[in-house]
Amino acid sequence: MTHHSIQPSVYMKIYTKKGDAGETSLVGGTRTAKNAPRVEAYGTTDELISWIGLLRSDAAAKPYHPLLRRIQECLMTCAALLAADEQAYKKLPAVSSADIHALEVAIDDMQSSLTPLRAFILPAAPQVAAVCHIARTVCRRAERCAVGVAREAPLDDHVLRYLNRLSDYLFTLSRRLAADSGAADDCWIPS
After folding, report:
1. Domain range holding 182?
2. What's the pTM?
3. Residue 61 to residues 33, 106, 146, 151: CA-CA distances in angstroms?
4. CATH code at 56?
5. How many structural domains comprise the chain?
């Protein structure tokens, strides 16, 4: 058996020890606290990317996999913009209005075949629909965090619009996946 030598400079090092004291580097090199609003915003967006990955892993969501993957790519762009200092921010790609429009088209398409919504919905089975609801709530948190960043530093307004529309998409997708499985909306009726 032959062993191939690995050139360390070719691979990204997983640990650097530079964050051991509670600071991290933004894209561009500026150091900041790991609990800074900007870090919270891109960290929450990263969490959302993982929840979308869990959705993509479910066979019931297979018809939606191409758009879910594109959503992950757009969220990576959002995270990069949220993670960038002012100098690096200017060099990064923007979130596309076409991607926002794609979410709107998908929402309208799914909505057209769902029963009209007349009450709040309690997240429930099937599991893939419940995961959509978790992703939706994480998306809303990412949006709240991004609003905080936008009030203190330049942030492309497409980031906020994308996150807002994405939470609507995830809500509608949860209803579509539930309907596809034969489950009715579990409506909350105040007593």
Report:
1. 33-89+98-104+119-188
2. 0.85
3. 38, 14, 28, 36
4. 1.20.1200.10
5. 1
pLDDT tens digits for 65-88? 999 999 999 999 999 998 876 765
Give percent above pLDDT 70 in the chain. Answer: 78
For residue 104 the two structure tokens come to 């709107």
pLDDT in tens, 84-130: 767 656 667 788 999 999 999 999 999 999 999 889 999 988 999 99
Q: Report yes or no on 182 lying in a domain.
A: yes
CA 188 to chain CA centroid, nearest Å? 26
- Three-state DSSP state, 154: coil
The label of the residue with tokens 């990064």 reads 92
Distance CA 158, CA 164 (A): 10
pLDDT value, residue 22: 59
Distance in angstroms (rounded) separating the CA atoms of residues 172 and 185: 11
Residue 110 corresponds to which tokens in the numbers above? 């799914």
Q: Is residue 125 part of a domain?
A: yes
How buried is 147 (Cβ within 10 angstroms: 0-12 exposed, 13-18 middle, 19+ buried)?
middle
Instruction: Look up residue 57 and give its DSSP letter.
Output: T
Angle at 86 between CA 143 and CA 81, to 5 degrees: 35
